[in-house]
Amino acid sequence: MNFVSRGWGWSLLLLALAFPFIPFGDRTQFVQQIAVFVLSSATLALSWDVLARTGQLSLAHAAFYGLGAYSYALLATAGVPQILAFLAAGVIAALASLLLGAVTMRLQGMYFAIATLAFAEVIKTIVNQLSFTGGPQGYLVPALLGGDFLGVYYLGLGVLVVLILISSFILRSKLGFAFTAIRQGELVARVLGVDVTRYKLLAFVISSFFVGLTGAFVAGKTFYITPPSAFDTGVSVVALVMPIFGGLYSSAGPVLAAVILRVLEEVLKLVAPSAYLIAYGAILVLSILYLPKGILGLLERFRGRK
Amino acid sequence: MTSVLEARGLTKRFGGLVAVNNVSFSLEPGEILAVIGPNGAGKTTLLNLLSGVYRPDAGQLFLNATDVSAKPPEYRCQQGLGRAFQIAQPFLEMTVLENVAVGAMFGAKLNLGDATSRAEEVLELTGLSPKRDEPAHNLSLLEDKRLEMARAIATNPKVLMLDEVMAGLRPTEAKEAVGLVKRVRDTGVSVLFIEHVMPVVRDLADRVIVVDYGEVIASGRYHEVTSNQRVIEAYLGRDDLEEDGAA
Amino acid sequence: MTTFFQTFLNGLLQSGIYALVASGLALSVGVVGIVNFAHGEFLMVGAFIAYALLAAFGLDPIISLIPTAIILFAFGALVYRSSLRHVLKAPELNQMLLTFGIGIVLTNMALQIYGSTPRTMNVAYQGSSLQFAGLSIGLARGGAFVLAAAILAGLYWVLGRTRTGKAMQAVAQNRVGATLIGLEVDRLYLIAFGVSSALAGVAGVMVSVLLYASPYVGLVFTLKAFAIIVMAGLGNLRAVIPAAFVLGLAEAYVQTYVPDGGGWAEAVFFALIFVSLVWRSWRIR
Q1: Does any CB of chain A come closer than 8 Å to the CB of residue B124?
Q2: Which residues of chain B are within 8 Å of residue A174 when distances are taken between CB atoms?
Q3: Chain C residues with CB inside 8 Å of A241's CB?
């Protein structure tokens, strides 16, 4: 699973750091927007993967994304300094996930997934019905960092890099063993001394913190949120499609998938503005059927053949 | 000398069925205790109660004089209660070494490096070293069982609980397994094991308790217990005796 | 008081369709073991078939039921053969995603062909209703309920009385055991999934009349069907109908009695799923 070896990792980082300065001519704005989108998607995808490592397949990402978005919007509007509001969004999402995680602790597999989906829908409805959130009409969001592209880009990149570091640390440490053991046999893990409750909640909190940040990030970039957009089930879908497509339980897989799929999506949108989702769905279907270990798995097979 | 494991009046009901009924026993340090009884007698349920998979409806359990009755399995393991399941459940996508390392890391609370070393030792002890880097889903039945035991041993238990590990083993393999259990005991571990294969029980057990319909019906040394009338009845079944007109 | 009973009636009638959709999903989950996230989209396809037949041939939806059922059965069988069969042994996650993907493709194809504006069916009986003891029963609604009840009765008869049906129940209750005694599971799965799709399609025809045909109509029904089978207990085909009643009634009462009930009604289903799942999970040990 070491496709992103030191060399590759550093070069990609350098590329990412230098990116805003690469001239794209009159396509620049367009490419820049895609880049930011890729960053937020990658963060979303990787955070889902971190949680999935414990066997918790969550469909509640939309809930934490939305909570992050609204937390940022409400706090920043109330005068809280933007960076604080941004971080608070992550914290609020994390705390909410603690609650959800504790309550669903004994649910497995599909039952867990459905419970989290139900949770997300309930949260969406509540936010939609409340008045101080602006209800169905939505809410104006103060522009993050004044809408300055460089600032926004590096913030997004920074968040992603931190998550990648955390994810890699988990993979290489005792935490990784705990997560994997829980995923592959929760009861057995318990009997072997793994404090399952603690690790599952930890995974949830880490994951949701970053999802909350992503929600705030996108909200601060799009300047306007409504319950259907902030709590869109599509967010949960994207969050899980990417790790599967890219390669589960790795740092590189979700990120790689985010890059490939988002770029592909934009290209498809240009070619067939309304039909691109058909292609997206088809890609999903085909990758499940033919790429069970995702893109990373495919690459490993090639490496194996060398 | 306090018992290393003591059960007092453990009871477990499932709906209307009493699976384990007022079971009390103690396990002394360095002792090997066998739990035998007819099929369906509640032995595995008892083991589940001991390891914390089930909560008792009544009764208490003491591990090294600490009351663990309400504690979850992971706590009990960290305090020294190791368990190997009857049907081996390895972490399929992990290697043999990694499987065992999990036990060392969390049950024995070692760091990554130490846990790996400990795991290597245990693999050596159980004869699994050649399969060190093999994904667990590739193992044969025998290797599965050995892995099951290795994992439990790696948690550095004070009490090791085994559930029918001899089932399906050929005589030579069973002999090896018996030797392994004795070696483990010699390192200071007390053993409680459920078994059906009587020659193994005779060889291995210091003491035997017999469970039938969830109750302890006899306790003592192998010869005492196997010549106990009630035990014989339990195994043969009361019907036979009624048919013979003896009941 | 009349409101109370009217609400009850509305909930009851609505639960007929819910039971139909949920039974289809229950077959898929219980018998085949596949969590079909595209189940609602199969319903959507049924709705559009009814719409297309009406628009092109003036065919009344009641008559469209039969060709729709057949088309969806074939479609379901095709989907099973070509893709689902290959992920039966894969982790649940993969199955979920596969059906997700299929759902996305179907929704967006419908979007391409018909656009996002819902298409209403102009049939004579759509607006009329029966008045009975101070209560009002929509003709279409009542008819749909009766039809759904009849179909479900037929389904349960097949499940309980025919060899194939009993085999399906056996598989739903014990998958491994069923294969061990030599049941040809692949053929059973094919039939079960086909029937599941057909049920969704038929429900779709009803939905097209009672509501409209829209590319997005599927998701809501998928989720509600899930709510029902989760409450009934996965694999438990019999408990689906009572569960459908509970949810249909709960939804109706929230809609009527809770202020701004329409907005909260959606959450009712989900809150119920969540609570029942969590409640059940804490009761074992």
Answers
A1: no
A2: 105, 111-112, 115
A3: 97, 100
> CB–CB of A176/B97 below 8 Å?
no
Q: Is B87 part of the contact surface with chain A (CB cutoff 8 Å)?
A: no
DSSP chain B: ---SEEEEEEEEEETTEEEEEEEEEEE-TT-EEEEE-STTSSHHHHHHHHHTSS--SEEEEEETTEE-TT--HHHHHHTTEEEE-SS----TTSBHHHHHHHIIIIIS---HHHHHHHHHHHHHHTT-GGGTTSBGGG--HHHHHHHHHHHHHHT--SEEEEESTTTT--HHHHHHHHHHHHHHHHTT-EEEEE---HHHHHHH-SEEEEEETTEEEEEE-HHHHHT-HHHHHHHH-HHHHHHTT--
Q: What is the DSSP letter of A23?
A: -
Note whether A241 and A97 are within 8 A (CB): no
Residue C94 has its nearest CB partner, among A122, A278, A288, at A288
Exposure string over C24-43, b if 16+ CB within 10 A, otherwise e: bbbbbbbbbbbbbbbbbbbb
Cβ of A118 within 8 Å of Cβ of C270? The answer is yes
Nearest-CA distance from C210 to chain A in Å? 24
Here the tokens at position B121 are: 């030792």
A133 touches chain C (CB under 8 A): no
Chain A: closest CA distance from residue C123 (Å): 31
d(CA A304, CA B7): 54
| Nearest CA-CA distance, residue C219 and chain A, Å | 10
- Residue C131 makes CB contacts below 8 A (sequence gap 6+) with none
DSSP string for residues in chain C: -HHHHHHHHHHHHHHHHHHHHHHHHHHIIIII----TTHHHHHHHHHHHHHHHHHHH---HHHHHHHHHHHHHHHHHHHHHHTGGGGTTS-HHHHHHHHHHHHHHHHHHHHHHH-SSPBPP--GGGS-EEEETTEEEEHHHHHHHHHHHHHHHHHHHHHHHSHHHHHHHHHHH-HHHHHHTT--HHHHHHHHHHHHHHHHHHHHHHHHHHT-B-TTHHHHHHHHHHHHHHHH-TT-STTHHHHHHHHHHHHHHHHHHSTTHHHHHHHHHHHHHHHHHHHHHHH--
C-beta of residue A263 within 8 angstroms of C-beta of residue C62 = no
Which residues on chain A place their C-beta less than 8 Å from a C-beta of chain B? 173-174, 177-178, 180-181, 184-185, 187-197
CB-nearest to A106 from C226, C273, C281 is C281
Best residue of A57, A122, A232 to probe chain C, by most C CBs closer than 10 Å: A122
CA distances from A212 to A61, A186, A207, A289 (A): 9, 27, 9, 32
Among partner residues A57, A119, A129, which is closest to C263 by beta-carbon distance?
Answer: A129
Residue spans of beta strands (DSSP E) within chain A:
139-140, 224-225
User: pLDDT tens, position by position, for chain C (285 residues)?
Assistant: 778 888 888 888 889 999 999 999 999 988 888 889 899 999 999 999 999 998 888 888 888 899 999 999 999 999 999 988 888 877 777 888 889 889 989 998 998 899 888 888 887 777 777 777 777 788 888 888 899 999 999 998 888 888 888 888 888 777 777 777 767 788 888 999 999 999 999 999 999 988 888 998 888 898 889 888 888 887 788 889 999 998 888 888 888 887 766 677 778 778 888 898 898 888 866
Contact B91 A195 (CB under 8 A): no
Helix axes B112-125, A174-184, angle to 10 degrees: 50
Beta bridge partners of B32: B191
Contacts of A177 in chain B (CB under 8 A): 98, 101-102, 105-106, 112
